[in-house]
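Hello again,

I reread your note about wanting to compare the complex against the isolated chains. To keep things tidy I'm splitting this into two emails, and this first one only covers the full assembly. Below are the input lines as submitted, including protein chains and any nucleic acid or small-molecule components. They are followed by the predicted structure of everything together. The single-chain runs will come separately.
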Amino acid sequence: MNMEMQDIPPSHEDSLRLISSMIETARKQIGDNGFHLLFWGWVTIVVSLLHYGLDVFTDYPHPYFAWFLMVPGSVVSFVYGYRRGKRSKVTTYTDRIMVWVWVTVIVSVVITIAFLSYINFQAVPIILLFAGNATFISGWLLRFRPVVIGGIMLWIGTIVAFLVPPAEQLLVEAIAVAFGYLIPGYFLRAHYKKQ
Amino acid sequence: MKQFSDLDPLLHSQLRLAVMSLLISVQEANFVYIKEKTGATAGNLSVQIDKLSAAEYIDVKKHFEGKKPVTTCKITPRGIDAFESYVQNLQQYLNPK
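Full-complex prediction:
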């Protein structure tokens, strides 16, 4: 839009056109470049397979220690998100709500892990459930269908994980995350670059 | 053309209206974003942003990122009220009852 505007009153039709065009411009831009979906997708797949490999193929007594990789992962994710937020030219209400949606996942996961013995150590399906909820909501907030479908994939993963033995739950997790985070993450990145 | 006596003169200007329409849709936006989206020159935009800020329709914050100055704008509750009244008045004019 060429808008080297003068300080003169527009006609009422022009005013309305201008308002809708600017609101539409601000609304249709997706600020998410897919980094978090791709990063957490790969980290979760590596950690799940590492845990599975240590459990099934070695005598290592603490295969679940693989999950400690999530700690440096969280630091990388937080630092990246913080820096990107500071550098970004615009913050939408969607961006802000997305942050809080994912904060609820972190809080839910921490509470779940603290009380694992109370839920018969069914961490994988429960965490997939939380991730599915947040991914589904994120997809609607972004108005981006692949992420909505990603959320549904994680819910399907939750159901399957409840039905299989603990070791195989880790394989289900890796597959669910590949469909729930990675594939939508690549779609989101492609969409962001095209914008 | 009929003059709009009841339209807020501060908003009834192309660039200021464009800035307000952008800011009502987002949490906050910096100067570069507004300049890109409106296609305005830096000088003109700066003058109009100062006018909106003086009327307390927007809140303008300046800070440095490294050595680069960054200006961030956010619509205020007063700005939201003014924008809503402007749109209502415009609608009344377009659909007189």
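For quick reference: Chain A touches chain B through 32 residues (CB under 8 Å).

B.
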